[in-house]
Design a protein that fits this description.
324 residues, alpha/beta, Rossmann fold, 2 domains, 7-stranded parallel sheet, 5-stranded parallel sheet, 32% helix
Amino acid sequence: MNNINSVISFRVTDVQKNLFVNSLGSFGKVTFLKNIPEEKKAHVLSSADVLLAWYPPDELKNIDRKNLQGIKLVQLLSAGYDQLDFEQFSSDCQIACNRGAYAEPMAEYILAMILALSKNLLLKHKRMVNGEFDQLSENRILKNKVCGIIGFGSIGKTSAKLLKDFGTKIYAINSSGKTGDEIDFIGTLNELDFVLKNSDIVVISIPLKKETKNLIGKRELELMKPDGMIINVARGSIINEKDLYYHLKNNQEFLAGIDAWWNEPFISGKFKLRYPFFDLPNLLGSPHNSAIAPGSLLKGAELAIENVLRFVNGKEVRGIVIKS
């Protein structure tokens, strides 16, 4: 496939720019939308075959749907795709997420949150700052514990491998209820209650879509063990904000590690909470940067390019998402 016009709609570094040009330039024109005047962006997009994007609502702001109908492939740099308005593109346009691009740093981050909460490191540090030396309080251990992973894709599978080294049992949920990985249980969302009831730790790594918005609310939290733990590195809206706050407030033994929030600067312009989560001693929070590590964004770009090249060469595109 020749004469493929590729448009990159997000801001790139010089290294990324060279990577895109060197990898895709031999197949056609490569255009960086951020370098194009506003009045000419619609024209550039109307002749695009491939769009590589991070956050389309911002990058395609003020672009009419009619200027996007020639695009045959939208390749996201992000692993998530909830930010995309599928109706902007033609019905035969393929849309691919960057599946597996950030699995390794995110799995390490998940493990770090689990360990920090299990060992109560943040609270112990704060107490030592105040001169309290508590040498006898017990730490939780991971051996023989059950970790339920809701969303057993690349992130979930990589996390499971790390946790199994600690002797942790893995209960997982994916869309098919099948896996080739050696774990202790696999099911679909139909088995969510079973996994919640039997897990000591629950990791949320499932995509946000209609079926998973508010997937975890008051009822589901109460199914979990009183001293359970929940980690969310996916999207904030998968857990009901109000229900999580009051569950944490009313159950001091229950722990939460939150990397994905309900209102983040990337989406709403600023970080804000409707409830005072950071007054709670049983919460550990971070600014949705579990995927950010040295070289991770460059690797994400490389994997996105590999997928575009699969499209260009007539091969099956990885990470195709179901439009919903």
